[in-house]
Structure formats: structure tokens, C-alpha cells
Amino acid sequence: MAIEAWLMEENNEDQRLPHHKNPKEFVSMEQLAELGVLYWHLNPKDYENDMELQKIRETRGYNYMDLLDLCPEKVENYEVKLKNFYTEHIHGDEEIRYCLEGSGYFDVRDKEDRWIRIWIKEGDLIILPAGIYHRFTLDTSNYVKLMRLFVGEPVWTAYNRPQEDHPARKDYTKSFAMKIEAH
């Protein structure tokens, strides 16, 4: 089962809505991979014993893990936190999220600075590269249980846009220049 992603219609409607363009413009896994976004579909019902998850963690050095339940009943100041997650930002490290239950949206910027909405659902593991502009929101289900993975101690520092001089952003944009020159 492949993940669903599409170019977003930018408007001021509820951020939890799909925001499809009319007509809908879907984005392929190949297009996401060109942006550095990685994806796996795993078995969330048995994540403690999942050999594929273990292999991903070992290969990429993800030695820290925690679980996060996001819903109005479990998060203090839920609406405020959701707005904070939805502020466009980058991180100095990869962002790794594995959806164990529920669903939500990661939005990432493409090479033309357009928003691509990625709908993660149960079983989806997504890795966003360091330096990519992105944001997160729940969908209308208002519930997601995520596994967060890190290399070493977790760092949750978000650097809000603009961050063109941040080392991770410079490395990210330089990787695109190399890809373009290779073609």
C-alpha cells in the first residue's frame, strides 16, 4: 500500500481538511524521493517485534524511541499545540515518524516552493530529511499515535522559516543543486 500525497490548494480553510486542488494533482513516491522523503509501510500491530523496523533502526542509527498520542483528550492546550506543529519549519536532523494508529498530514515544500500534503495512516513510516521545510497537522479524525525515532538524544528544536542560512538548510538545498547538475 503506497502513501497518498498531492499538491495542496492553499486557502484559509481548516488545516485538518485535505486541501486538494481541483482537479486533484497527486504526487508520486518517486517525486517524494527526489525531495529526500523516505517511506516504508510496516505492521503497526507488532512494532515491538517487527524485523523490518529493527533493520531500519539499525541501518540508520535510530537508537532512541518514544510514543506520542495526539488528540484533544490527551494533549494539554491541544489547539495551540496543533497550530505550533503547523508552523513552517526545519530541523537540523531528520524527522522520523511511524504512525501506529490514526492519521495526519505532513506538508513539505517542493522545489518550486509549493506545498505537498502527505497523508500518513496506520503503518506508514516517513523520514523527512534535515533542512526540508515542513509542517504537521492532524486530519479530521483528530487522533494519531506516533513513534518518534532519533539518532542519540532526542532534539525537538524547530527553526521557523526563513532559515536559508541554517547549515541543515544549506546542505539540503546543495543536494538539489547536485541532483540537477547530474541530469
From TrEMBL:
<keyword id="KW-0223">Dioxygenase</keyword>
<dbReference type="InterPro" id="IPR011051">
    <property type="entry name" value="RmlC_Cupin_sf"/>
</dbReference>
<feature type="binding site">
    <location>
        <position position="134"/>
    </location>
    <ligand>
        <name>Ni(2+)</name>
    </ligand>
</feature>
<dbReference type="GO" id="GO:0005886">
    <property type="term" value="C:plasma membrane"/>
</dbReference>
<keyword id="KW-0479">Metal-binding</keyword>
<protein>
    <recommendedName>
        <fullName>Acireductone dioxygenase</fullName>
        <ecNumber>1.13.11.54</ecNumber>
        <ecNumber>1.13.11.53</ecNumber>
    </recommendedName>
</protein>
<dbReference type="GO" id="GO:0005506">
    <property type="term" value="F:iron ion binding"/>
</dbReference>
<keyword id="KW-0963">Cytoplasm</keyword>
<feature type="binding site">
    <location>
        <position position="89"/>
    </location>
    <ligand>
        <name>Fe(2+)</name>
    </ligand>
</feature>
<keyword id="KW-0408">Iron</keyword>
<feature type="binding site">
    <location>
        <position position="91"/>
    </location>
    <ligand>
        <name>Fe(2+)</name>
    </ligand>
</feature>
<comment type="function">
    <text>Catalyzes 2 different reactions between oxygen and the acireductone 1,2-dihydroxy-3-keto-5-methylthiopentene (DHK-MTPene) depending upon the metal bound in the active site. Fe-containing acireductone dioxygenase (Fe-ARD) produces formate and 2-keto-4-methylthiobutyrate (KMTB), the alpha-ketoacid precursor of methionine in the methionine recycle pathway. Ni-containing acireductone dioxygenase (Ni-ARD) produces methylthiopropionate, carbon monoxide and formate, and does not lie on the methionine recycle pathway.</text>
</comment>
<keyword id="KW-0533">Nickel</keyword>
<keyword id="KW-0539">Nucleus</keyword>
<dbReference type="GO" id="GO:0005737">
    <property type="term" value="C:cytoplasm"/>
</dbReference>
<dbReference type="GO" id="GO:0010309">
    <property type="term" value="F:acireductone dioxygenase [iron(II)-requiring] activity"/>
</dbReference>
<feature type="binding site">
    <location>
        <position position="95"/>
    </location>
    <ligand>
        <name>Fe(2+)</name>
    </ligand>
</feature>
<dbReference type="InterPro" id="IPR027496">
    <property type="entry name" value="ARD_euk"/>
</dbReference>
<dbReference type="GO" id="GO:0010308">
    <property type="term" value="F:acireductone dioxygenase (Ni2+-requiring) activity"/>
</dbReference>
<dbReference type="InterPro" id="IPR004313">
    <property type="entry name" value="ARD"/>
</dbReference>
<dbReference type="Pfam" id="PF03079">
    <property type="entry name" value="ARD"/>
</dbReference>
<keyword id="KW-0560">Oxidoreductase</keyword>
<comment type="pathway">
    <text>Amino-acid biosynthesis; L-methionine biosynthesis via salvage pathway; L-methionine from S-methyl-5-thio-alpha-D-ribose 1-phosphate: step 5/6.</text>
</comment>
<dbReference type="GO" id="GO:0005634">
    <property type="term" value="C:nucleus"/>
</dbReference>
<keyword id="KW-0486">Methionine biosynthesis</keyword>
<feature type="binding site">
    <location>
        <position position="134"/>
    </location>
    <ligand>
        <name>Fe(2+)</name>
    </ligand>
</feature>
<dbReference type="GO" id="GO:0019509">
    <property type="term" value="P:L-methionine salvage from methylthioadenosine"/>
</dbReference>
<feature type="binding site">
    <location>
        <position position="95"/>
    </location>
    <ligand>
        <name>Ni(2+)</name>
    </ligand>
</feature>
<feature type="binding site">
    <location>
        <position position="91"/>
    </location>
    <ligand>
        <name>Ni(2+)</name>
    </ligand>
</feature>
<dbReference type="InterPro" id="IPR014710">
    <property type="entry name" value="RmlC-like_jellyroll"/>
</dbReference>
<keyword id="KW-0028">Amino-acid biosynthesis</keyword>
<dbReference type="GO" id="GO:0016151">
    <property type="term" value="F:nickel cation binding"/>
</dbReference>
<feature type="binding site">
    <location>
        <position position="89"/>
    </location>
    <ligand>
        <name>Ni(2+)</name>
    </ligand>
</feature>
<comment type="similarity">
    <text>Belongs to the acireductone dioxygenase (ARD) family.</text>
</comment>
